[in-house]
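Ticket 4471: requesting a sanity check on a complex prediction with tetrahydrodeoxyuridine. Repro inputs:
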Amino acid sequence: MPDTKYAQLLEAAREARENAYAPYSHFQVGAALLSRDGRIFTGVNLENASYPAGLCAERAALAAAVTAGIREFSALAVCAGGQVTPCGLCRQALSEFGDMDVICAVPSGEPRLFRLSELLPAAFRLD
Ligand code: THU
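Returned structure tokens:
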């Protein structure tokens, strides 16, 4: 990614990741959503002994934002200890709220920049 436009958002995702609860996969993830009005909402993955009850960091961040009354986003940053892009379920959940930049941090090297619509073409919608 060529610029530092999302440096603060990435830092928020990295900081949040420290609180990830991932005792089963040991794959800790942090996410940070940037609202159109410039606010940042963070989330972490939250696993459970009943595996399907676990929640991804991206949807945790989305829940935090929507709970605060925010529904318009310009970007999402996600970071983990290895390569990560939002899972299919999170792509669908995020796409409910429109298109946005998706910045995927890697442990070393440049973050990768996508559009959500590129990661989830032809997203399902109810008319
Ligand atoms: N996970 C996320 O939180 N976000 C992603 O984008 C990929 C996967 C979590 C789910 C689970 O807690 C762990 O990472 C391993 O899949």
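Notes from triage: Residues 5 and 45 are 25 Å apart (CA to CA). Leaving this open until the requester confirms.
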